[in-house]
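G.,

No rush on this.
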Amino acid sequence: MKKADVKIGGKYYANVTGKKVEVQIDSEKPSGGWNATNLATGKKIHINSAQRLQGEVSKKKTSTKTQDESPQTVPADVNPDIVPIKAKRVAKQTEGQEPKRLSALAAAYMVLCEATEPLSVQQMIEAMTAKGYWTSPGGKTPHATLYSAILRELAKGEASRFVKTDRGRFVAASVEVAQ
């Protein structure tokens, strides 16, 4: 949209936090842009540029209640105060569908469970690739990514699947290694 097309008091579609919502322009800001009200939430927002506006709300799309509408349009057994909850989407399962592939962290844990000694992250990456548990999707430093993920997991304390034995070397928490 262009700045010249925006009118005070007009209703427009705007991009607010990544969602398309209806807003009403209240006033123009002296520093540029507009003060507006999100019609869905009633909150005041700032529109900094006309690019955030996606067009004027047409009168056909908005519905207004007439006085002759009665609240009896709702079935008697439905409580009008309860907002219906949207059903969660369930992924469609097909017969030929492969199981989900392992994450790098899960594959590293499997490799460490099978290992007889502490491994470095580079050794884990090589073993995961050799055994077919996980392959890098093309990243330049999968070892650095895995190392950082293991450190985040170690921060969980007792709930961690990994134990750091030496600098850059790890074992699975369920496997005890004799030193």
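When you get to it, here's the other one too:
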Amino acid sequence: MRGLADEARIRRFMRELGRAARRPARIYLTGGATAVLSHWRDSTIDIALKLVPEDDLLLRAIPELKESLQINVELAAPSDFIPVQDGWEDRSRFIVQEGPLTFYDYDLIAQALSKIERGHAHDLEDVREMIQRGLVQPSSLRKTFAAIEPRLYRYPAVDPASFRRAVEDVLRSQRH
């Protein structure tokens, strides 16, 4: 059984993946890894990431690192679950350079909206932390949701009306 990924394990994963890389790429961390590296959670069950561009060498290195570090790694990003606004790469926060790899936190607004859509208690708590820490502005959440709403048809698992209500519920709870 693999262990939880705390900050030390996540940073070791980034270092080791950087050592395995032979050419430049960008790694966008999302979900629990962002929460741990931002210090509002101590650990996460997995390191979720998006690799740009995809690289077979790195994709082959990930399972080896999962085993050697005894962590879970998932290839997942908000764009797998909801539409994201163009320019998300520019809104992603730099974390660290490891060898030829540059690590970022995936666009925090896209992460927050993805977490709201999922609706799990820990995801909603992450969104509250993002807002309370000033990492995500409520007005940006509302504006970005309005921009992506017309494209929700591309994600048949998402109910647009329920998603809209969930966003409004989160925004309403932040005013109190």
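The first helix runs from residue 7 to 20. The first strand starts at residue 5 and ends at 6.

Enjoy the weekend,
O.
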